[in-house]
Each structure stands twice: as structure tokens, then as C-alpha cells.
Amino acid sequence: QVQLVESGGGLVQAGGSLRLSCTASGHTASGRPVSLYAMGWFRQAPGKGREFVGRIRWSGGSTYYSDSAKDRFVISREKVGYTVYLQMSSLKPEDTAVYYCAAHQIGADDWNIWGQGTQVTVSS
Known about the structure:
Strands 2, 4, 5, 6, 9, 10 and 11 form a seven-stranded mixed sheet that branches. A four-stranded antiparallel sheet has the order 1-3-8-7, with no helix packed on it. It is an all-beta fold. The chain is elongated and about 50 Å long. The mean pLDDT is 94. The protein contains no helices and eleven strands.
């Protein structure tokens, strides 16, 4: 089974920075390494639905961000280690949420593997 493990969440003051990491491990049911189309980040604030933050295409590395994330967040990846990063800067209290890593495997219709989430709290 392929699993995503996030790390790097925590408490930070407004205006600060934080970097989240997410590593894909394991193999598919056929025993092969996971083949990724993209990896992405989502977040869910208390009382709200899950919100798309951004994603990175695994092959070419192109990125796409939500309006709330662009200019402040940067997604990067390490292909060899199957790791994706979310560098967050100029954090605001409204960025407080549980952040989830997700993977879109090649051949899947959508994001089909999810991490357990990591809490990010931004104090004012």
C-alpha cells in the first residue's frame, strides 16, 4: 500500500514561515513503486470544508496555486525521495488549518491517496 506521511506542522506567529513535508512510501498492489501524476496540498480550517492549496506535476514540476496561496506559498519536490514540500511564508491567522498532502497516481481519476494531516496554527 502507498502511504503519505506529512511532517512539519506546528505553531507559528503571524508573518512567520513554516515548511511542511510529505513523503510517499510503499508500493502499489502489484508490487511496483508508485507512479505519480501530481502531488498536492489541501487544508481544512475548523468548521470549513477542505480547500485546495496547490499542486505540482510530478514529471515536469509545474505548479499551480490557489489565489490564497500564490505569492506566499511554494511547492517543490524531490523525485528520488518521493517527497513534496510546502514552504509557507508571510503566514496569517486565516492560514490556520489541518494541512493534507495528496497524491494523484497515474491512471487515477483524481487525488486518490491522502495523508493523515498536520496541524498548522498561526497566532496573531
